Amino acid sequence: MNKQFLDVIIIGGGLAGLCNAIHLSKLGKKVLLIEKNEYPKHKVCGEYISNEVLPYLDFLEVNPFDSGAVRINNFQLSTTKSNIISAKLPLGGFGISRYTLDLVLSEKAKENGVTILQDTVSNVTFLKDVFQVETKDNNIFTSKITIGAFGKRSLLDVKMGRNFIQKKSPYLGVKIHVKGNFKEDLVALHNFKGGYCGVSKVENNAINLCYITNYATFKQYKNIEDFQEQVVFKNNYLKEIFQSSEALFEKPLSISQISFETKKPVENHILMCGDSAGMIHPLCGNGMSMAIQSAQLASNLILNYFNGEIETRKELEKQYIRQWKRKFSLRLKAGHFIAMLFRKDTIASVLLQILKKLPFLLPIIIKQTHGKPMKI
User: Would you say residue 280 lies in a domain?
Assistant: First the structure.
């Protein structure tokens, strides 16, 4: 049994968890990050990130372009009937796989002195202003602060009785990397009946194809291949990309029970970051950026708490909730609304016709789910 007292324990080693770990350790905090998987690992993810995060990544001393990230400046959107519209991305972005980015961030965290433990957290208790974190391998750690960055859904969500976990989650995500022809500076979102697929280049000339669909629609078919053939390929752009490309994965990755229900940024005194705090619809293509930004938000407030600028835990939690909502609430609402519109074929077609006649509107809509370059 391992017992240690830390400044901060981070549960989950995705983008939010790793960025928190790097930020807090960079400023002298003793940090333990607990992640159930080993690095590197592929994850179901759109793998496009808005350039708004680049100033913060620079502060963390991480340059994604050193690891082969692809610069993206153009955007395409198609409806289920294969009507298409294009636009320049207001800020631009880049494509990089989670396999590579998570590995780079984890190596930077270790370089900063962060302890990364491959284990699963089984329980978290909060008593007398201290967290006790227990793991599957019978480790027990205590800390002043605990950050929840364990992703879309976890057994910890169930243990904490979080509201969103009580509701059935109807979405399924599928991802594959392929080799084929696709413009390097483009991110595309192609709709099909019951879902949509993101397409963009990542490092090593690979194309990331990642789609989300309603599970009720999917389960009517025998398998992923049958579903793609019968549903996804009704969009001519997706049919062409899938059928003219060579798969780089043995089989597609999938994740079920994806929830876009509202979550609380603080639960049982744990500061939630990334998908643990809230998920934007992938149709809006900026979830990775939100995860990274939530880490900066949490880390800055935690550091202010440690140095006495924030005097009480209650004030820390209050400020985090307020700032998280100020930064992300409108994005999440815009994401829900945009996704809802494009789920309705008739509305989506009318909307696309309007955007074709008034093309200046599309960058304005994109801005609703993106922020400005992060301030350091």
Answer: yes
- Give the whole-angstrom CA distance, residue 359 versus residue 375: 30
Assess if residue 226 is contained within a domain. Answer: no
CA–CA gap between residue 116 and residue 32 (Å, rounded): 6
Q: Any idea which of 27-31, 61-65, 131-135, 254-258 has the lowest mean pLDDT?
A: 254-258
CA-to-CA distance for 108 and 274, rounded, in angstroms?
A: 19
Q: How confident is the model at residue 170 (pLDDT cuts 50, 70, 90)?
A: confident
How many structural domains does the chain have? 1
Q: Half-sphere exposure of 8 toward its Cβ, with a 13 Å CA cutoff?
A: 33
Looking at the chain, how many residues does it have?
376
Using pLDDT thresholds of 50, 70 and 90, give the confidence band for residue 1.
very low
pTM: 0.90
Long-range contacts of 303-312 (CB under 8 A, 24+ apart): 303/24, 303/27, 303/29, 305/145, 306/7, 306/29, 306/144
* Residue 121 maps to a domain: yes
CATH number of residue 163's parent domain: 3.50.50.60
Confidence of residue 361 (pLDDT cuts 50, 70, 90): low
Q: 340: how many CB neighbours lie within 10 A of its CB? A: 12
In whole angstroms, give the CA distance from residue 246 to residue 273. 36
Q: Which residues contact 338 (CB under 8 A, 6 or more apart)?
A: 281, 283, 284, 365, 368, 369
Structure tokens at 175: 């991802």
Domain enclosing residue 356, as ranges:
3-41+98-168+262-367
Which among 168, 177, 151 is positioned nearest to 253, based on CA atoms? 177
Domain assignment present for residue 363? The answer is: yes
The single-letter code of the amino acid at 314 is K
